Amino acid sequence: MLDYIKALFQSSESPVDEPDPGDVEAEIRLAACALLIELAYADEEFTDDERIHLVASIRRQWALDPQEAEELIEMAERQRNKAVDLWQFTTLIKRHYSMGQKMVLAETMWGLVYSDGELSSKEEYLMRKICGLLDLKPGYLSAARKRVEGDDPSRGAPRID
Q1: Which residue from 35, 115, 143, 157 could staple onto 57, CB 3.0 to 4.6 Å apart?
Q2: Which domains does the chain have, with CATH numbers?
């Protein structure tokens, strides 16, 4: 998975052939991680608590070891820095995730923004924007938020898949 993502960054053009399902999964992981990172930077400060939450979430979600998680985060940060908008990330997720998977991603995003103990207006705005791009209705967004607000912190972050 990570090898395919690395190859995307190293080549100047996209693969000509249709990617196999494993490659699509790798691209979706990269897109989801990039959205999480974008959200972490929404209030202009990517805190240690947010980073810890992000690493734990992606390790748990995709059964990554610490090195693989760090590589995914580095690749997602580079992709995020090159992106002009969120569309390239949300379109891929919107196309391939079920409603349930989108809901779990929304819960993970809420967990990330609450991980530093504060919810800024910029974070809340970006959550609404991303969820709108994913076609999650406001009621779903609210339900995901309530589940995270009511979560026992010792249970960990919700899974993305």
Answers
A1: 157
A2: 2-155 (1.10.3680.10)
